[in-house]
Design goal:
With 91 residues, this protein is an all-alpha fold. It is built from three helices and no strands. Helix 1 crosses helix 2 and helix 1 runs antiparallel to helix 3. The longest helix is centred in the middle third of the chain and has 27 residues.
Length: 91
């Protein structure tokens, strides 16, 4: 569930504002090494790729949270036990 939430939070900025996300990433990654990191402009295909990747992260997060909710027994937070096998053989 934590990974699903993390995926959702990480994907939202890139899905909604891909160019700003790219600029922020460039400032952090390239800023220490380049004097003009803010002047770089990403190509169109890269912006689309960042948006697609971010949307995939959001979908993965939502799907993970949905499936995690289905695995609980009647919302009690206990994992579902149907189909679980136990080994009760004593040696």
């Amino acid at each position: 569930m934590l990974l699903s939430l993390l995926s959702l939070v990480a994907g939202l900025p890139g899905a909604l504002l891909p160019e700003r996300t790219i600029r922020t990433g460039a400032r952090f990654a390239l800023g220490p090494a380049y004097e003009n990191a803010d002047e770089l402009s990403p190509r169109g295909w890269y912006v689309r790729a960042v948006r697609l990747h971010s949307v995939a992260l959001v979908v993965t997060g939502v799907l993970g949270l949905t499936l995690a909710g289905r695995g609980d027994d009647a919302g009690t937070g206990a994992p579902a036990t149907e189909g679980a096998e136990t080994d009760e053989t004593a040696d």
